[in-house]
Design a protein that fits this description.
Structural class: mainly beta
Radius of gyration: 21 Å
Strand order of the largest sheet: 1-9-8-7-6
Largest sheet: 5 strands, antiparallel
Number of helices: 4
Mean pLDDT: 86
Low-confidence stretches: 1-37
Strand content: 35-45%
Distance between the termini: 44 Å
Helix content: under 10%
Length: 428
């Protein structure tokens, strides 16, 4: 094969199901707190239990609350239907997401004593494609309204009141940016992930570090790679930092075949720069000859252990087709479309356990194979790892025992593709 690459042209559209939404500006507050709860269940706000989410962005979402984690088989269509529903954070029992009716803005959604979903408050946005926000703690969160590429906003998740803005105008990009992720390391700093407003990638996996004392950019972190087309993925929660304050970030690689491998990178505790020696290329640890070494999700758990979703190998049909055509230069447009379809559907992906200190990778027994681009997500219930797997053959939720390295089926889902499960008792 030659080293010419095949861009995955419609990657953004394929991945929108797992990209989180969010943003905001001002506030309308409704509802009651636990302190106001009476014998009327509708005025009670639950802070324990599990929310099961299934569906697609095209067909809508089904959501159902369970006091205990379900077993057996559940019909998710017996839950509540929403046009939009995907939490990006959970804090004090409430879920934060774009508004469930599809209108502009960001919602705080709680569960009442009847198991019903209640909008506690919302922050409207100007741009209807705003999607990014994060919660640091119960009284501090950030979001970006894509209408303004020069600022992000700080708000109070408890009251849903906007507090102030952060000046991001000195980013040096030369074109408008959208801020896709806010990663908190302590009370005084946040690392901001960005792409161009039109989807442009930025070179060298940049993170913009914001000093929250001055609410301004402090420095820009960059690594040097062979390409400037490395993709960064969004996901739920704030599981990036270990117990010592080391922050582990990740990129997916460049979305071509052959590709630059996806990798986990490190910002050491106390440092404001990347560790230039740390480039944990997880897919290549599993298969050093992998020409499609994508890494699409990573979560830190505890004690140097995290979990990543990778492409473990390239579908053999791709290599066969390229060989038949005499190399990448001989591929037609139809061939390229076929290769893209194989990449997004072939069960060549796997969830793996990663040791961030030793930079080793362990396969997980008992999880079904899947595409690395399937809408598969991790959940941490009672602070233990679980996996949501949805592909043409499997639609189920699995627990994982790290001691035995075995995953086991918890429940199956019918009615819509499973997206994830959220534990209302954990702030993430």
């Amino acid at each position: 094969m030659t080293q010419s690459s095949i861009p995955l042209l419609y990657f953004k559209n394929q991945m929108r199901l797992i990209i989180v939404l969010m943003a905001g500006l001002s506030i309308i507050l409704t509802g009651c707190s636990d302190d106001d709860a009476s014998e009327n269940p509708s005025e009670t706000r639950l802070k324990t239990g599990f929310v099961v989410l299934a569906g697609t962005s095209d067909d809508g979402y089904f959501v159902k609350y369970y006091e205990e984690l379900p077993t057996g088989t559940i019909d998710i269509t017996q839950g509540t239907a929403f046009q939009s529903f995907f939490p990006v954070s959970v804090s004090d029992g409430a879920m934060f997401m774009t508004r469930t009716d599809g209108s502009r803005g960001f919602s705080k959604i709680a569960v009442n004593g009847n198991g019903e979903f209640v909008e506690e408050g919302f922050i409207p946005t100007i741009n209807d494609e705003s999607f990014s926000m994060a919660i640091r703690d119960r009284n501090f969160g950030m979001f970006h309204d894509r209408n303004d590429p020069n600022t992000a906003s700080i708000f109070d998740p408890a009251t849903m009141q906007v507090i102030t803005t952060v000046d991001l105008s000195e980013n040096g990009a030369g074109f408008p940016l959208r801020y896709q992720k806010f990663i908190f390391r302590n009370q005084d700093e946040v690392f901001v992930v960005a792409r161009g407003e039109e989807g442009e990638t930025l070179p060298s996996v940049p993170l913009f570090r914001v000093d929250l004392q001055s609410n301004a950019l402090a420095n820009k972190l960059e690594l040097s790679f062979e390409t400037d087309e490395l993709v960064v993925f969004n996901r739920f929660g704030q599981r990036y930092m270990d117990e010592s304050g080391n922050l582990y970030f990740y990129h997916g690689g460049n979305l071509s075949v052959p590709n630059i491998s996806g990798a986990i990178v490190k910002i050491p505790a106390g440092s404001t720069e990347y560790d230039p020696e740390y480039n944990f290329q997880v897919p290549l640890k599993v298969n050093p000859t992998n020409l499609g070494a994508f890494l699409t999700t990573f979560y830190y758990h505890r004690n140097d252990i995290g979990y990543a979703l990778i492409n473990a190998e390239l579908d053999s049909r791709i290599a066969e087709l390229v060989t038949q055509r005499g190399g990448f230069q001989g591929l037609s447009n139809e061939d390229t479309e076929q290769i893209i379809a194989w990449l997004f559907s072939a069960p060549t992906g796997a969830w793996v356990k990663v040791d961030l200190a030793a930079q080793t990778v362990t396969s997980i027994n008992g999880l079904p194979a899947l595409s690395p681009f399937d809408p598969s997500n991790m959940a941490f219930l009672n602070n233990e790892p679980y996996f949501a797997i949805s592909n043409p053959d499997i639609n189920a939720f699995y627990s994982y025992d790290a001691a035995s390295n075995n995953a086991e089926l918890v429940f199956n889902v019918t009615g819509a593709p499973l997206v994830s499960v959220f534990d209302l008792s954990i702030d993430e």
